[in-house]
Amino acid sequence: MITVDALSVRFGATEAVKAVSFRVARGDAFGLVGESGSGKSTVLRAFAGLNPVWTGRMMLNDARLDAWRDKQFFRRVQMVFQDPYGSLHPRQTVDRALSEPLLVHGLRDIDVRIARGMAEVALEPAMRYRYPHQLSGGQRQRVAIARALMAEPEVLLLDEPTSALDVSVQAEVLNLLADLRVARGLTYIMVSHNLAVVAHLCERVGVMQGGELVETLSTDDLRAGRIQHPHTAALRELSVELEEPEGIVP
Fold it and tell me: Per the confidence metrics, is the pTM higher than 0.85?
């Protein structure tokens, strides 16, 4: 479903991403982990089309991606950002946030789709005409996920989707994302600094350091300590536990 081959991204004299390569099969979830500044979010933004200056090769379902993407790409690939408050317009209601992608892509039955989308992420109908400041952090992130799903994409790009939330709310959102992936047959790329979160949601993990992908391994190998690169071992040691975070249903 997703091919990233020798992707490099440079900001002036700084090479933020250095020849990163990986593949994600349809319906799989791939996690990118690393310290702040390792380049993991830059990889995600480049694939999303938010950073048009890059070299290498990226493909979506065997179709090569150019620097600039057409509207069809943005229907097939959607992104959920780290800060749900910052990613929602403060003067737009939930209804407006969810109806906008439907209008952009010319989809009909807007009321039906919004009601179904809110139910899918466990938002009460009464929240439809509320503003972001009237919602909790977890509710705002559920709105952001529902908005990303409105156009019925095939791929979700998740940029630290739970790091701004309380621990108990993190578990709820992660379980929701896991359920949605199965129900809709979605393909995920998830960026996080939290190994336990990535190990819960993803089958494979890519470890980044200094803009390079230094190791790719299964989450089973990560949990068992079958690790090749010292930086992966260091990240694993820094993680309190690689078991499921509190409240997460295995």
Answer: yes
